[in-house]
Amino acid sequence: MFGGWFKPKPRPPSPEPFTEEWRKIPWGNKGRDLQFVRDYQPHNDELKQQRILLYGPTGSGKSSFINTVDSVLQGRVTGRASADAIFLESFTKKFRTYKIQKGGPGEFYPFTFTDIMGIEDTNKGACVEDIKLAMRGHIKDGYNFNPASKISEDDHNYNKTPTLNDQVHVLVCVVSATTSNILSAETVTKMRQVRIAANDMGIPQLAILTKIDEACPEVNADIKNVYRSKYLKEKMVDLNVALGIPLNCIFPVKNYHSEIDTDDDIDTLIVSALRQIIHFGEDFVNNL
C-alpha cells in the first residue's frame, strides 16, 4: 500500500541524477532567507510567538532539527534539545517547547518549536489523542507522555483554558530519508490521524525529510546535489503518497550531527524551510 518507503528491502543503486535542479534554491545566498527570519514579527498583536509542533516516528530527527535551526540562528553548533543516536525507543519523553535566543538575554525569536515523543506502534510512543489536545493548546510544558492513554483533565499539566499562544500554529511532520528507519503500517496510520485532525482544525502542515546525506551518496558528497537526486525525489513522492502532504510542502534537509562548525549550504536548506514554515503560521493566525 505504501510502496518502497515502508518495506525493509535492500536499497537499489542510486539512479543517475537530474542534469538540472528540479527545485531552485539560493545556494551562496542564505542571507536573504536568514534576514527574513531575523526580521519576522507576527502581525497579530495577540500572538507573542508562533508555536511550531514537530511530530513523526522515533529516530526521525525532530530534536536534531530543533538544534540545527538553533545552530543556524546562533551561528554556531548547539545542542539544547536532547537527541539520541540509538533509535530503539523515543528519546524524547516529555512535552517541551524551545525558544531560540535572539540578541541579548531574555530576547527570543517570535516562534517556538515544540518537541514531543515519537510516534510508534501500539502502546508505544506518543498517544495520538495527546497530540490532538496539544494542537488545541491543552498540554503544558513538562507533561510526561503515557503511550497507553491520553492526558487526564485533572492532570496538573492539562491546560483547561488555552489562549492563542498556547495553540499550535504550524504542524511539521519530520521523517528520515534513510531506509534504516522503516515505518510500520500502524505508525503511518497514526501519523495520518494526526494530519487529518490538524486539517480539521485548519492548522497548516509541512514535512521535513531529514538525513538526506545518509540516504544518498551524491548528496553526502555535495549537499548541493539535493535537488538533482532522483532517489530523494522518489522519497519525497513516497511521503506525498503515504500521508498526502503536497510536494511543495516537503523540504529535504541535513541536520548537524558530526560537524563542529556551521556550514552555509546546510544553513541554506534549513532557512529555506524555516521561512516557509513561518509564512504558513503567519497565514493561519491572520485567518483566524
User: Strands across the major sheet, in which order?
Assistant: 2-3-1-4-5-6
CA-atom Rg in angstroms: 18 Å
Percent helix range: 25-40%
**Secondary-structure element order, as H and E?**
HEHEEHEHEHHHEH
Biggest pleated-sheet summary: 6 strands, mixed
Strand content: 5-15%
Whole-number total of structural domains:
1
The number of helical runs is 8
CATH topology, what is it called?
Rossmann fold
Relevant CATH superfamily:
P-loop containing nucleotide triphosphate hydrolases
CATH level 1 name: Alpha Beta
Quick summary:
Helices cover 33% and strands 12% of the residues. With 288 residues, the chain is of the alpha/beta class.
Descriptive account of the structure:
There is one protein chain. The chain is 33% helix and 12% strand. It is of the alpha/beta class. The chain has a six-stranded mixed sheet with strand order 2-3-1-4-5-6, sandwiched between helices. The protein has eight helices and six strands; from the N terminus they run αβαββαβαβαααβα. The N terminus is likely disordered.
Brief descriptors of the model:
288 residues; disordered N terminus; 33% helix; alpha/beta; Rossmann fold; 6-stranded mixed beta sheet; 6 strands
List the helices and strands and how they pair.
Elements: H1 31-39, E1 50-55, H2 62-74, E2 96-101, E3 108-115, H3 128-135, E4 170-176, H4 185-201, E5 205-210, H5 212-215, H6 217-221, H7 230-243, E6 250-252, H8 264-287
Parallel strand pairs: 1-3, 1-4, 4-5, 5-6
Antiparallel strand pairs: 2-3
Helix pairs in contact: 1-8, 3-4
